[in-house]
Amino acid sequence: MLSRWLSFNWWYYRNPPWDTGVSPPELLDFLDQRPPGRALDLGCGSGTNLATLAQRGWQAIGVDFALPAVWRANRQLRAAGLQARVSARVGDVTRLRGVRGPFDLVLDIGCFHGLPQQGKLAYLANLEGWLAQSGAWLLYAHLRSEPSDARGLAPEEVAELSRRFDLALRQDGTDQDRPSAWFTFRRR
After folding, report:
1. Can you give the pTM of this predicted structure?
2. If you classify domain 37-187 with CATH, what class do you get?
């Protein structure tokens, strides 16, 4: 875990390839179809999606375990005058302290799929408390193409998520030649 934490912190002293500075169309489509509410962005990176949420009238909290990412996010939000609506904080998504739901949207772009199994279980236990009754979990994840893949969601994990939450939408694609998918889950 320490090596993963060091790696992510190091990346944010540079420019991580996954942090494009552009909110994905799947998030924008989701926001177009719903009125503003409260959002939680897990693995918020440098705050691009937090800024998008605030610009669309949402109140949001972002969490990332990479300190340089959170510094970037808060600097970007202050510069855009958005800090009254959104903020970013350092935290571990498997055991967040001081984050109170319910949230109308829990956004996760590439965080959940990289957690170890115990971390995924803790995350899911928290998620059920964070989501509002009519809330949505918008999840982007790499998918395992082979059982030996170290990262990504295995088919049985996707099936388990679909047993815990209502799967409203799944959009499969590829990301740098890796299978990936966008999921919209709703609380049961």
Report:
1. 0.89
2. alpha beta
